[in-house]
Amino acid sequence: MYYIENVERVSRRDFFTTSFRAGVFLLLAACGRLPERPSLTPTVAIRSIGNGPNQGPYDLTEANGVLTDGRIDFLQHPFLEAVKFSFDPARQGGSLVLDTILRKDAEFRLISDERDQVLSTNPGIIFCAPTLEKAGPVRKFPVIRFGPREEYLISLGFKLPGEDCLTTYKEMHTYYITRDGSGNLQGRFEGLRTFNPNDPSFKPRDSEAAQPAYFQKGCLS
């Protein structure tokens, strides 16, 4: 619910426009012809961004199999200039591809958290590795062997050289990405997620994910 302080008079034209739109919506609802939106609800609560033009989750734009965050500029992220997701079926059993453009040099941490229940052994953290990156394009592969109906929360964290290591775990820019039953990517920006690397529950899901190349709690600078 929103409280509006200085309510202005509504013009006759605006009144009829609003009434017409409401009538169309109710008519479609009565006929059962409202478009259905796929359910993309993750199983973990994430803090939404509290100010600015984009408060809370929003869908990524899809074109030719590529998901693009079309609102990243409005969020004025200090490190991220662009974010895109795509799927490479020929790489290691099918890899999720993350293409970013960084505004400046940074230490970049990526955490991929599987949330689905396709297999009871699947859910858990599968990728957590810091890398030193230069400003400009950066490509990463948050998920390999990405099957249909699997669901992931992809969290991106950054820090400058000399900053505290825990900075890369705080208010991580988080996306929800899934493949539907036909294998097509769907996704949205979810909000900000924070991890505690010293929490006992923060651990890789299996021996493969525990490899040092994947799971590194420390930072590089």
Distance from first to last alpha carbon: 45 Å
Q: What share of residues is helical?
A: 10-25%
Strand order of the largest sheet: 1-11-10-9-6-7
Q: Enumerate the spans where pLDDT stays under 50 for 5 or more consecutive residues.
A: 1-45, 49-54
- Radius of gyration from the alpha-carbon trace, in angstroms: 20 Å
The total of helices stands at 2
Reported for the largest beta sheet, the result is: 6 strands, antiparallel
Order of helices and strands: HEEEHEEEEEEEE
Mean pLDDT across all residues, rounded?
79
Describe the protein's architecture and organization:
- The chain has 221 residues and is mostly beta strands.
- The chain is built from 2 helices and 11 strands.
- It has helices at residues 12-31, 72-75, and strands at residues 58-59, 61-63, 66-68, 80-88, 95-102, 106-114, 124-133, 136-143, 151-159, 172-179, 185-193.
- 24% of the residues are buried.
- Residues 1-45 and 49-54 have low confidence and may be disordered.
What is the topology?
Layout: H1 12-31, E1 58-59, E2 61-63, E3 66-68, H2 72-75, E4 80-88, E5 95-102, E6 106-114, E7 124-133, E8 136-143, E9 151-159, E10 172-179, E11 185-193
Antiparallel strand pairs: 1-11, 2-3, 3-4, 4-5, 5-8, 6-7, 6-9, 9-10, 10-11
